[in-house]
Amino acid sequence: MSTLTKEQIKQLVRGNNFQSVSDINEYLKDIFKDIIQELLEAELEAKLGYAKDDVENKKTDNSRNGYTPKKIKSEFGEIDIQVPRDRKGEFQPKIIPKYQRNVSGIEEKVIALYARGMSTRDISQQIEELYGFSLSAEMVSKITDRIAPEIKEWQQRPLEPIYSFVFMDAIHYKVKDDGRIINRAAYVVLGVTIDGYKDILGIWIGDNESSKFWLGVLNDLKNRGVQDVLIFCVDGLTGLKEAINAAYPKSEVQRCIIHQLRNSFKYVPYKDLKAFSNDFKEVYHAINEEIALEKLYELKEKWGKEYPFAIRSWENNWDVISPFFKFPEEIRKIIYTTNIIEGLHRQFRKVTKTKTIFPTDSSLEKILYLASMNVVKKWTQRYKNWDRVLSQLVIQYPGRLEEYI
């Protein structure tokens, strides 16, 4: 497409008495309308095979049959055009299809604004301010509903046969249900491929977090092709370890060390918290499990009488804490915390902070899906030192990775 030269632009400005940006917009609107009209005329001419004033070369029994007025929405606002008709009703315009009344890409803009957390009412107001035509909050909602098939397809897409790490956590929201406001959990699963790249495997909306629902999520992953996971990184939900063992009996379960520390610290008053947390570093910085246990027992000797519950949770959960100690620093950095999924949750909270209550589960699902797509676009880098991580995993889990590398 050719562009105007600087001299042509100067002539354009001199030939029009532009007083404001809106004057320029109106001028462009008129040009846009004329171009659309000409394109429609050209399409019909191509269909009939003869020009409007060239009846002598007519070689068809079809002919022009007037116009149908049509109002379309564009980036320049609402425009009235005249769609040419043919006698036989065979003409189907391509530039503006028969039932299309919006040529501005407005739907994509609406969905993009919705993905950033704007309410349907705010989006409606923004569209009116930008484009000069009204788009009701209900229409905005209908537009965003059109991504429902896309969400379904994404949620059912086939997954990789094996993941090196899978992080699982839930984030909670309030949703209306038959006039009541209930608590709902968005169950989020994030996987790391054997190539070291992150991906959101799915988001499930359900009742408040439970091991039974998590088992359903895990079975869904299996049905979508996930045959094996080396390490699941999770928080301390009761029964989650059993759910993982039922679905993926060969997988290792690693409790998030940060969650475990927070759980212990809540039993310790502020006056002792700094000294207690410094002593605990000796445990989770230990070079192997044997030394970690020694340090835990030393900690118990020092603090156990005053704060027994702070120590007991480590003893009771040692089977899901201890896998951490057999790995080198590169892998420990990955499984030390579920911060990777908490970071995703922070992005979710950014776009949902203006919505204290969601009208339906599907409205919550829509905004979390759109936010997820924006996050995933930025995940272009794989984990640092991944070659070394993969080499360690191959040794630690013999026979499980070789066929996929």
UniProtKB/TrEMBL annotation:
GO molecular-function terms, A-Z: DNA binding; transposase activity
The UniProt record lists the keyword Phosphoprotein: no
Keywords: DNA recombination, DNA-binding, Transposable element, Transposition
GO BP terms in the entry: DNA transposition
Coiled coil: none
Pfam families: Transposase_mut
Function: Required for the transposition of the insertion element.
Family recorded in the similarity comment: Belongs to the transposase mutator family.
Protein name listed in UniProt: Mutator family transposase
Phylogenetic lineage: Bacteria, Bacillati, Bacillota, Clostridia, Eubacteriales
